[in-house]
Write a structure and sequence with these properties.
The complex is a heterodimer of chains A (300) and B (290). Chain A contains nine helices and twelve strands. Chain A is an alpha/beta fold. Chain A has one domain: P-loop containing nucleotide triphosphate hydrolases (Rossmann fold, 3-Layer(aba) Sandwich). In chain A, strands 6-7-8-3-9-10 form a six-stranded mixed β-sheet, sandwiched between helices. Chain B is globular, with a radius of gyration of 20 Å. Classes of the chains: A alpha/beta (300), B mainly alpha (290).
């Protein structure tokens, strides 16, 4: 059945991703100076397909700037960004991107399925030609993010969590090997945030996509993060959570003493007495299970 | 009610009416299509400004004895280019650039209108430029209007997908490799041409009504972009045709022997359509609370 075939093309991992676990994104010594100020200094890390990486840092730490460099919207003053081993260019496999603080006008005549469809071919000129294959792809992506129930609702009328899911479908339908999400959990209530996190973990492992999520709060991501890139003062430390979220590593990064506290499975990064405060993990409560059960499977 | 009461004597045999019906339809479809994006992009102010700037073009064309459409088109395109060149890259920069160009153009309009009235000793020109008359369009202008209209529609069809994503989020569009600035500039050109076409039919000042009104009405009634464009076009055409009919009939209304201006009817009908389009939502809210 053509429908079934369409489903498989929609969800099956890309050829390149199945070939191995070569690095999809490699950031090497990236420095960005904006009007004389060093926003990022010598930032290096790499991520592989199937991995979920948290880009953690407080507001103004340079998370969005780093995303803009990866997307090719901001030139790095120094250093290189390699996507699947190649310098970024427009012909690269597309990078899926969900921007920060996305709030669509409720008056915009655009259904959830229209926005997902734009993810497929918005870069092309002309009017989209409706076809069974196109419709099936959109339907499949909507199902993969559990957005079928509100597929025909105006995007602007959806809740924050629902909008995030539609945006993730929009970003994924072009079959990127790298998915960037800028603060996707900001402005979400605890339950919606947890749902989005679980969805992203599912996507990373089942679609073999490298997922990079920026957040100022690391606790919601703790159960699913394979790797953390911790940004402070424009510099980065990266590795597993156990390697990075440690008093000595973060103290060196901040350039002043910080403590890392484990409270009921949550991690708190607390500035030492008298130091300029830069504290994470002070909001919300999230069980710090390392291995969260992932409810449901991707609809295949 | 007999047809004679609705269509006053000679309605269909009048060549002015036939031209008006064709021009009105072309202009309304173009305005509805472009206007839908204008409303989605929140560029109503740019649309209004380009319409007002048409006064400069229209009065200049009159001074040099050229057809007014040429004046509208030239002023619109030059103004759009100027807005794009000033192009201040800040959230409110777009409105700032628009305001600066609008101010300069209207200053020039003040001079041109003054020269029109002193050198040509007519007062009618100013009124036609500002408030237009679709009955005053000459047969010779028809091919130009149709050609420009088709050109604008083709440009919007070409830009459709990148433009739509740019409306949703310029950031997402840029991340997809869309040249957001170039798409915006091309769209501004389409807007300038659409406004020039509207100005020829209902006047430079009222062109905004045809651009924004039907589109705003359509956005209330539909939730799909393509359908919104179609509804905007239909509302515009309906307002145009009904306005033409009422203006023709008004010749027999008091005061005797002078018709009411067609632009008045068109703009009033568009306003009524917008008010009516709010009814479904209002009734739904009532129904839920009651």
């Amino acid at each position: 059945m053509s429908d079934r075939a369409g489903r498989h093309t929609a969800i099956a991992p890309t050829d390149a991703a199945t070939r191995g676990t070569a690095e999809i994104l490699s950031v090497q010594g990236v420095t960005v100076r904006l009007s004389g100020r060093e926003v990022l200094r010598d930032v290096s890390f790499a991520i592989a397909p199937g991995e979920l990486t948290g880009l953690i840092g407080s507001n103004g730490a340079g998370k969005t700037t780093l995303f803009r460099v990866i997307l090719g919207l901001q030139r790095a003053s120094d250093g290189t960004v390699l996507i699947a081993g190649h310098a970024r260019s427009r012909r690269n496999a597309p990078i899926g991107y969900v921007p920060q603080k996305f709030l669509l006008d409720p008056d915009m005549p655009l259904r959830a399925r229209d926005l997902v469809g734009l993810g497929l071919d918005a870069h092309r000129f002309g009017i989209p030609r409706p076809s069974r294959a196109r419709r099936a792809l959109i339907e499949e992506m909507l199902a993969a993010v559990d957005a079928r129930d509100f597929a025909d609702t105006r995007v602007g009328l959806l809740s924050g969590g629902e909008q995030q899911r539609v945006l993730i479908a929009h970003a994924l339908i072009g079959r990127p090997r790298l998915l960037l999400l800028d603060e996707p959990l900001a402005n979400l209530d605890l339950r919606a945030a947890q749902e989005v996190v679980e969805l992203l973990a599912r996507i990373a492992s089942q679609l073999e996509v490298a997922v990079l999520i920026s957040a100022h709060e690391m606790n919601p991501l703790l159960p699913v993060m394979d790797r953390v890139v911790y940004l402070a003062g424009g510099r980065a430390a990266s590795g597993s959570v156990a390697e990075v979220v440690r008093a000595d590593v973060l103290s060196e990064l901040y350039g002043s003493h910080v403590d890392v506290l484990n409270v009921h499975g949550r991690v708190l990064v607390v500035a030492g007495a008298g130091d300029e405060g830069d504290m994470h993990g002070h909001e919300g409560v999230f069980p710090g299970r390392r291995h969260a059960p992932l409810p449901g499977e991707l609809a295949l | 009610m007999s047809a004679a009461l609705i269509f006053a004597h000679g309605f269909f045999s009048s060549e002015d009416v036939r031209i008006a019906i064709v021009v009105g339809a072309v202009v309304a479809v173009v305005s509805g299509t472009v206007g839908t994006f204008t409303v989605m992009r929140g560029q109503s102010f740019a649309g209004e400004a380009l319409g007002d700037i048409g006064i400069t073009g229209g009065s200049g064309a009159f001074l040099f004895g050229v057809g007014p459409l040429w004046g509208f088109v030239a002023a619109g395109v030059v103004a759009a280019a100027a807005m794009e060149l000033i192009g201040i890259q800040r959230p409110r920069g777009r409105d700032l650039a628009t305001g600066i160009v609008l101010g300069a153009a209207l200053g020039l309009a003040a001079l041109l209108l003054y020269l029109d009235s002193t050198l040509h000793n007519t007062t009618g020109a100013g009124r036609t430029i500002l408030f237009g008359s679709v009955f005053a369009v000459s047969v010779g202008t028809l091919p130009l209007i149709a050609g420009l209209g088709a050109g604008v529609l083709a440009l919007i069809a070409l830009l459709y997908r990148p433009l739509l994503l740019s409306c949703v989020s310029a950031e997402m569009a840029a991340a997809r490799g869309i040249a957001v600035r170039a798409v915006g500039a091309a769209y501004l050109l389409a807007l300038a041409l659409a406004v020039a076409l509207a100005a020829i039919s209902i006047g430079a000042i009222l062109s905004t009504a045809l651009l924004i009104g039907p589109a705003a009405t359509a956005l209330r009634l539909t939730r799909r972009p393509g359908l919104a464009i179609a509804v905007a076009g239909l509302v515009g055409v309906a307002a145009m045709w009904l306005g033409i009919l009422l203006a023709y009939d008004s010749y027999y209304w008091p005061p005797k022997e002078t018709g009411w201006p067609v632009s008045f009817f068109v703009v009033t009908l568009i306003f009524l359509a917008y008010l009516l389009s709010g009814l479904p939502a209002l009734l739904r809210r009532r129904g839920r609370s009651g």
